[in-house]
UniProtKB/TrEMBL annotation:
This is Trm112p-domain-containing protein. InterPro entries: Trm112, Trm112-like. The lineage of its organism: Eukaryota, Fungi, Dikarya, Basidiomycota, Agaricomycotina. It comes from Boletus edulis BED1. It holds the Pfam family Trm112p. SUPFAM superfamilies: Trm112p-like. Belongs to the TRM112 family. Interacts with TRM9. Coiled coil: none annotated.
Length: 123
């Protein structure tokens, strides 16, 4: 499933696409909300691994504006619950992720991204 926690780790890997290939931009997506058990320790421990600006932009693209533009210093339960929701409960079911550099499109179908490249695209 494409969740924003996964999306935050993905970059384009098409041949010759080595700069400005992250984050992939969501296009024409359909989302589904799927409740997950809240684990504040997991969310707190994952926080340093996140590219914050990319996460906020992706969340906004899929219709969630609950995260602040800058990563907060304090991580209270209210903030961790919002972050948990954005990272783990928003599932992108259909659409595409587009590379901002080469415009390669990675389709998403039934929640599964197709990150495979044709032989001539492998680099």
């Amino acid at each position: 499933m494409v969740r924003l926690i996964t999306h935050n780790l993905l970059a384009c890997h098409a041949r010759g696409c080595t700069t400005n290939n992250f984050p992939l931009l969501f296009h024409d997506v359909q989302i589904e909300l799927q409740e997950q058990e809240f684990n504040p320790d997991f969310v707190k421990n994952f926080l340093p691994k996140l590219e914050w600006r990319a996460l906020v932009d992706a969340a906004t693209l899929v219709g969630d504006a609950s995260l602040p533009p800058e990563q907060p210093e304090m991580t209270d339960d209210e903030f961790l619950q919002k972050l948990h929701h954005v990272l783990l409960e928003i599932h992108v079911m259909e659409g595409a992720m587009i590379c901002p550099n080469c415009n390669h499109s990675y389709p998403i179908s039934n929640g599964i991204p197709n990150m495979l490249l044709a032989e001539h695209e492998i680099g």
